[in-house]
């Protein structure tokens, strides 16, 4: 119809004229009605032919667009990623990872929700989110777990004599008021056992849901806190490294177990795999060795 004749169409398609005529006849047979009137060797398009041409153009345009979109998906430049994250990582760390990941990818959309670790587990298990970051969960068949092991640091006020020490021990915190996670939290229990083993007094004056809220209490010189380094790095960023709370290594090691979580029964997209790799890389960049030295 665009070429004006079967012979011109055959040239453009690199086919013979009989082959094109046979294709038209086959199409009309499949449709069960004629698309062209035959007059003196010429094909005159019927209204049905114009309708089919319009529909075909729309389909071909959609196929071309789909091919382009899938090429962009394959190059990780387009798509949608859903992330569920616990509060300690959601305030600064995960936005830091997201910002770096999408910096040169304007067509990638991100949904990031902050919830408790328990809810993050359920969302990942239900395949509602592609990636989760939370405290280490108990074994669940529905969740794939990649451990993230972090060594605790001690938060003290810069005017506290403890701030002058290169590292802080349980003996240094004998009877000192502490801001800890809630009483039943594994890290609080570990810290309590460690103090008891050393024969020093464990004084959890403030029991909290997260360490970020505890740093306000440390600023007021009401307590110290043995916390995870991700929360410590987040505090430093929030205060532009000018806050009165300083962080020192805590000895012996108190381990905080975090994890990168993905659904076990759902294949990861290429984009999700790439984002997990970004998390791995940014963990070291966000909390570099020696970043808490004054």
TrEMBL record:
<dbReference type="Pfam" id="PF03466">
    <property type="entry name" value="LysR_substrate"/>
</dbReference>
<dbReference type="GO" id="GO:0043565">
    <property type="term" value="F:sequence-specific DNA binding"/>
</dbReference>
<dbReference type="InterPro" id="IPR036388">
    <property type="entry name" value="WH-like_DNA-bd_sf"/>
</dbReference>
<keyword id="KW-0804">Transcription</keyword>
<dbReference type="InterPro" id="IPR000847">
    <property type="entry name" value="LysR_HTH_N"/>
</dbReference>
<dbReference type="GO" id="GO:0010628">
    <property type="term" value="P:positive regulation of gene expression"/>
</dbReference>
<dbReference type="GO" id="GO:0003700">
    <property type="term" value="F:DNA-binding transcription factor activity"/>
</dbReference>
<protein>
    <submittedName>
        <fullName>HTH-type transcriptional regulator CynR</fullName>
    </submittedName>
</protein>
<keyword id="KW-0805">Transcription regulation</keyword>
<dbReference type="InterPro" id="IPR036390">
    <property type="entry name" value="WH_DNA-bd_sf"/>
</dbReference>
<keyword id="KW-0238">DNA-binding</keyword>
<feature type="domain" description="HTH lysR-type">
    <location>
        <begin position="1"/>
        <end position="46"/>
    </location>
</feature>
<comment type="similarity">
    <text>Belongs to the LysR transcriptional regulatory family.</text>
</comment>
<dbReference type="Pfam" id="PF00126">
    <property type="entry name" value="HTH_1"/>
</dbReference>
<dbReference type="InterPro" id="IPR005119">
    <property type="entry name" value="LysR_subst-bd"/>
</dbReference>
